[in-house]
Amino acid sequence: MYGSWCLKSSASGQMGQVDLTHMKRLSTLVDVFLVLALFSCNPWTVWSNQINPKEVRPHSVSITEFGAVGDGITLNTKAFQNAIFYLNSFADKGGAKLFVPAGRWLTGSFDLISHLTLWLDKDAVILGSTDSDDWPIVDPLPSYGRGRELPGGRHRSLIYGCNLTDVVITGNNGTIDGQGSIWWNKFRNKTLDYTRPHLVELMNSNGVLISNITFLNSPFWTIHPVYCSHVTVQNVTIIAPQSSPNTDGINPDSSDNVCIEDCYISTGDDLISIKSGWDEYGISFGRPSTNIIIRRLIGKTTSAGISIGSEMSGGVSEVHGEDIYIFDSHSAIRIKTSPGRGGYVRNVYISNMILANVDIAIRFTGLYGEHPNDTYDPDALPIIERITIKDVKGGKVKRAGLIQGIQGDNFVNICLSNITLNVSSKLPWNCSYVEGYSELVSPEACEPLKERIFPEHYSDCYYLPNHLKSLSKQIMEFI
Q1: 52 falls in which pLDDT band (50, 70, 90)?
Q2: Which candidate among 90, 107, 284, 343 keeps its CA 20 to 30 Å from the CA of 75?
Q3: Is 177 a catalytic residue?
Q4: pTM, 2 dp
Q5: DSSP letters of 46-68?
């Protein structure tokens, strides 16, 4: 249903050591293959359609060949558009590369094509135009029903692509700068006419690699793969001022087989936020986000390190994160939902996390609100289940957890294991409408989560490795 849909312009570390003995104890061979796939993130080995950023495209041109001027003043939108139009003729001949050399290349929004590598040299900077007319107005996403900030359309991203295959954005750590301050001021002053643009948005695309690039000052969410499959974001740096509104880092949205690894992100909103549509529109569109891998993430934010929602009406599942370091932030892990969202968040596993100077380590919010309109169904209740968080250490943490479900719609099978936090609050946990289990948690988990995981509730928890089960049995026997 959603495979061919595209925007139209309305304006023109390591997992813990699992030895072979323990692997043999997994219930089926399918479990083994899932484990191996989920914790191997190289883009040319994980996903079925292989992408290698080092592969030489047989055809290459420089943006300067199309009249572009890298002085930071000359508008180069036509040069980018013309270069990519020319390279499209090589899409079926092994693909092509557009080379952006050192310089400051001012541009408005432009489209990518299939079988293209956009390559930025070390001192190359692509600058987003500060004239909103250079960011065309496009239709809202069908899974949102309207612009995220305002009813109606939205500005198209600076770098955009739809219905593409085999797309690479990479280089020698060149920079893409959205110059977002003009948009942040419009948001604060309530003078926006349409929802702000992303820095990069790829839609309905398959086989995407974004690597070795620095992204600065996005007007809105920075990297937004939506309705995509087989996406890798690797070795990127994303920076925006802590005061910048809604400058999320990476937002996989109704997308599957997404790998995010080795990234540093410091922004004014969630570092990574997994989404899948908004209320009745997301429910109707019905495309979940699934099989999301996050590895070796470092960052700080005024919001959450890893967030799911609040727009999750198409469902989110099979999220695995490991080797995460969050510092100087509001929260580390957050799930946001609300009556009216519908959908589900299930089978989430976060491990090996270090926190420093974080207000709330774990935060689940069941009454987040923010609906697209008044026609949502308040009886469309979300399902939140099988969330496992383990191997977490934190210093200078104000509160261990604020986990608040929905009355009549408890969040269930929330499992916490081997978590040690140095907490300053006299009330480290605040939990309501939640059910689950805990093991080796300090400070001791809240009452609804105090029942021990092992041995009775091991199967209720998502993806607790067997070596942990054996360790817990040894501890119980010792006690």
Answers
A1: low
A2: 90
A3: no
A4: 0.90
A5: HSSS---TTSPPSEEEEGGGGT-
